[in-house]
Each structure stands twice: as structure tokens, then as C-alpha cells.
């Protein structure tokens, strides 16, 4: 299905390993920066963002800038957006509040290291964070699938989540979310094909297009086929000639029937008109005599 605004979720695992691997020695140099941030423009968020998490986030952004040839800054900026939602705000804030918090944090961070994520703000704004989180959960189990039989439970979890999210796709008609599910379907089927599990593990997943696409396509084909066959029968067969002759015959009879009736109707109307004229003359003569 190609790239979507949610495609970045496929690479989130490597960014998660980076931020999870940061030690206290790595984040200590950012302590003063965080203190300054939350005593200034981000003062209202101080209760939401612990010093430890702030320092981790600052170090992660610096890491992205220092390793621009190995990692995509755009992907890293989208990961930190999801990280704020799950690890900082514990999924308790609305999408608007999360984006506002993220945007304010990036603007404050730019005072120390300009433009790390600033160019990607508009793209991130389009992301529905709750759906990004659902896809993140899907890929979390997917990345645990290997060729070993222990992976069967993870694969089953993927199939269950996929079917749950498929309902959301159909209900809310989010094209990017639906397309990313279709991308996942392809990846899943390629990976589980070699798994040896019991029959309860589906080796294929339903398409986001569902049966409605097949029904619509079938209906179009049937309608076109009927139209084509009808045209061919009418144009090139005895049945078509017979129908054509009957239509011509009916038109002739209609004309024959219609013509005398119109003549009779016009004649009657003329007689009525003449009688009315005579009556008017007689009436006028009587009135003035």
C-alpha cells in the first residue's frame, strides 16, 4: 500500500532501544537545561515531566542530531512524540494537549539546539496519537515473532489486535490507518508462513477492503456484462431484429391511431368555437335591440 503518515511505526523499535539504553551518565549533562526549561516557558508542565524523563528526551534529541547519517531525524521526532504520550503523559491527555506539550517542548529545546524537530511539526500534527499507539502495540508483538514455536502466542496476539483495529478502520474511515493495517497484513503473512503452530493461528489476515470491495466489483462486472450482452443481442441477432421490427410496427400503429383522433379533436374544437361565436353574436344583438 506504500507509505502513510503512520509508516514510521515500523522503525520505532530501534528508537525505543536508544532511549531505553540511555544511562544516568548520558543524561546528567542535560540536567541544567531541563531545570531552565521548566522554570521558564514550560513551567506549567513541570508536574507532568520528571527531571529524569526530561533529561532522557533532551539527550535523545541531541543523539539524533549527532547521528543524522545513521538515523532519520523525522522518524526520531515522531518517536519522541509517541514517547511523550506513553511514558511522560501516561496516555491521559487529549491529542490536542499532547501536541501542544510536544510543540512547546520542541520550541523550548530549540533555544539550545536549533531546528532538530521544528521542520517536522506539521507532519506530526496530522498523526492521531491513539492510532499510532495501537500500531506500535501491533508491531511490538510482531517484532517478537521468529521461526521458533514460542512465537506462536505473539503471532496470535497480532492477529487478534489486527482484527480489533480493522473494525476501527471501517468505522472511522481513516485512510492512512487502514493502509498501514494493510501494510502490516503483508508483513505478517510473510513472517508466519514458516511458523509451525496449531490450527488456531491464522496464516492470512482479512483485507482492509473486506467483502464490500469484492461485492462492489462483482456488481460492476455483472452490470457491464448484462449491458454488453443486451447490446449484442439487439444489434446482431434475429431477436434484436424482431424487437426492432416490433418497435417500428408499434410506432406506426400509434401514429395511425393518433392522427384521426387529433383531426377529430381539432374538428370538434372548431365546431365549439363556431357555436360560441354565433351565440355571442345572438346575445349581443338581443342586448342592444
UniProtKB/TrEMBL annotation:
The reply to whether Transmembrane helix figures as a keyword in the UniProt entry is yes
Membrane spanning residue stretches: 213-234
Record key words, sorted: Membrane, Transmembrane, Transmembrane helix
Return the protein name: PIR Superfamily Protein
Q: Which organism is it from?
A: Plasmodium ovale wallikeri
Amino acid at each position: 500500500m506504500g507509505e502513510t503518515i503512520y509508516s514510521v511505526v515500523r522503525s520505532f523499535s530501534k528508537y525505543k532501544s536508544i532511549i531505553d539504553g540511555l544511562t544516568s551518565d548520558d543524561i546528567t549533562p542535560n540536567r541544567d537545561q531541563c531545570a531552565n526549561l521548566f522554570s521558564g516557558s514550560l513551567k506549567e508542565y513541570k508536574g507532568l515531566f520528571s527531571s529524569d524523563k526530561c533529561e532522557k528526551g533532551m539527550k535523545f534529541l541531541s543523539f539524533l542530531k549527532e547521528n543524522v547519517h545513521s538515523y532519520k531525524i523525522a522518524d526520531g521526532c515522531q518517536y519522541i512524540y509517541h514517547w511523550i504520550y506513553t511514558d511522560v503523559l501516561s496516555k491521559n491527555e487529549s491529542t490536542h494537549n499532547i501536541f501542544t506539550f510536544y510543540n512547546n517542548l520542541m520550541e523550548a529545546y530549540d533555544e539550545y539546539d536549533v531546528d532538530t524537530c521544528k521542520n517536522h511539526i506539521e507532519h506530526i500534527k496530522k498523526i492521531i496519537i491513539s492510532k499510532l499507539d495501537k500500531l506500535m502495540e501491533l508491531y511490538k508483538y510482531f517484532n517478537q515473532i521468529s521461526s521458533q514455536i514460542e512465537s506462536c502466542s505473539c503471532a496470535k496476539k497480532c492477529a487478534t489486535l489486527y482484527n480489533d483495529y480493522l473494525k476501527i478502520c471501517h468505522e472511522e474511515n481513516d485512510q492512512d490507518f487502514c493502509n498501514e493495517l494493510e501494510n502490516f497484513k503483508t508483513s505478517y503473512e510473510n513472517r508466519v508462513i514458516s511458523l509451525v503452530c496449531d490450527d488456531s493461528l491464522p496464516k492470512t489476515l482479512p483485507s482492509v477492503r473486506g467483502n464490500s470491495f469484492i461485492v462492489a466489483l462483482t456488481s460492476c462486472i455483472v452490470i457491464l456484462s448484462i449491458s454488453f450482452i443486451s447490446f449484442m443481442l439487439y444489434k446482431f441477432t434475429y431477436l434484436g431484429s424482431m424487437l426492432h421490427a416490433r418497435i417500428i410496427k408499434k410506432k406506426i400503429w400509434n401514429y395511425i391511431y393518433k392522427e384521426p383522433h387529433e383531426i377529430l379533436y381539432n374538428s370538434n374544437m372548431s365546431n365549439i368555437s363556431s357555436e360560441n361565436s354565433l351565440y355571442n353574436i345572438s346575445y349581443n344583438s338581443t342586448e342592444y335591440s
